[in-house]
Prior knowledge:
single chain; 104 residues; mainly alpha
Amino acid sequence: MTIVLQARNMVEHLRHICERPRMYAPDFSLSHLLIFIQGYEVALGDVALPSQHERLREWIYKQQPEWRQSSAWWGDLVPEECAGDLERALEAIIKLLDGFLAEN
């Protein structure tokens, strides 16, 4: 069986990573998501395309306004709400991504 993951944008890629994190990194942590986002954004900038993370981040901050004041990136704030449980944090991130995709 071959799994084909198709994504049209960064948010869909993030969702795929959250669904199967250890397929991307055996020792997966949420820092891997941040590294992916940063690389994706650099690549977009290299070809003069607009940021996708900026739209996602602003949407997330509308859902969680108190996170805007934190010095941590939003991905580090999710586990705090999930008692540090990576699996629960990934499920919470998927819910955020699904909400964003549904509205955009």
